[in-house]
């Protein structure tokens, strides 16, 4: 019965920044993962954060550029994306580990509920 609502995204020039948000009631109770799927590509892991603002994890392709964080007061987990590259262009999804899966944070099957997705487009 948990609903994840995503916001943010849009069109940005290479080198620019965007901030994505994933909002749900009591979202700090759940681990949250970010995944993306580019046109013609398979879904890939981007970043994740453990419940209660714990440990964070990043794909090699985005580390040192993207930051995932939580704000319990706003019931929001955010993905700050800096130094964006054209290859970051994709639909981005957040997923919540509602049932405390034993799966790893980089595995999509660890997440039980997904947001609606938001388009990120980075121009050359």
The counted number of beta strands is 11
What value does the average pLDDT take? 95
As a whole number of angstroms, the C-alpha radius of gyration is 13 Å
Low-confidence blocks of residues = none
Query: How helical, in percent, are the residues?
Result: under 10%
Shape: globular
Strand content: over 45%
* Helix/strand structural class: mainly beta
Head-to-tail CA distance between termini: 40 Å
What kind of sheet is the major sheet? 7 strands, mixed
Order of helices and strands: EEEEEEEEEEE
Number of helical stretches of at least 4 residues: 0
Task: Describe the SSE topology.
Blueprint: E1 5-7, E2 10-13, E3 18-23, E4 31-37, E5 44-49, E6 56-58, E7 66-71, E8 76-81, E9 90-97, E10 113-114, E11 118-123
Describe the protein in words.
By secondary structure, the protein is an all-beta fold. Helices cover 0% and strands 46% of the residues. The chain is built from no helices and eleven strands. The strands form two sheets. Strands 2, 4, 5, 6, 9, 10 and 11 form a seven-stranded mixed sheet that branches. It has a four-stranded antiparallel sheet with strand order 1-3-8-7, with no helix packed on it. The radius of gyration is 13 Å and the shape is globular. The mean pLDDT is 95.
Protein traits:
124 residues; mainly beta; seven-stranded mixed beta sheet; 0% helix
Summarize the structure.
The protein has 124 residues and is mainly beta.
